[in-house]
Amino acid sequence: MAKKKVRNYVNNSEFYEAMVVYKKEVQEAEECGDPPPIIPNYIGECVYQIANRLSFKPNFVNYSYRDDMIADGLENAIMAINNFDPDKSKNPFAYFTQIIYYAFLRRIQKEKKQLYVKHKVIENSMINDTLVERGSDNKTKGSAAYVDLDNDYMSDFVENYEESMRKKKEKSNGNGG
């Protein structure tokens, strides 16, 4: 059975034309001293479709915070919409895909940092014997809680995270920073 050809979900030439029209409207508004016009629905839909489809790529699909990644990508794309220059590029699809891709990577790094911080807080609480289980009413004092911190996944995660932070620090110190 032959593979079915996948229809492009964003027509790049139509997207480009919409961006050219929008950029002209923005320029005219600036010249008149008016506030910039609202981003057209078509452009917004294109950016949303790019972010949504990119989130289904194998390197992003299994994250539990995929919706946050999409939201970050949209936010970054909207912030950068006026930086698109139709004279330099006729490919807004690639422009916004790159912006959204790097927003996804930044969200993943933020989430990894949060996971690391949570793990360290729990680890320190156990070391200091301050981790306790509360009663069901959250008011009564409970007994010491048991948390298994000796698992391979978290051990590897913490080790890799600390190693990457060490390398970043060395790199920034080596470049005069």
Percent helix range? 55-70%
Strand content: under 5%
Low-confidence stretches: none
- Characterize the largest beta sheet: strand count, sense, and whether it forms a barrel: none
What global shape is seen? elongated
Structural class: mainly alpha
Radius of gyration: 24 Å
Summarize the helix and strand pattern as letters.
Answer: HHHHH
What's the total helix number? Answer: 5
Mean pLDDT comes to: 85
Gap between N and C termini: 58 Å
Oligomer type: single chain
Strand segment tally: 0
Q: What does this protein structure show overall?
A:
It is a single chain. The chain has 177 residues and is an all-alpha fold. The protein contains 5 helices and no strands. It is elongated and about 65 Å long.
Question: Can I get a quick summary?
Answer:
The chain is mainly α and 177 residues long.
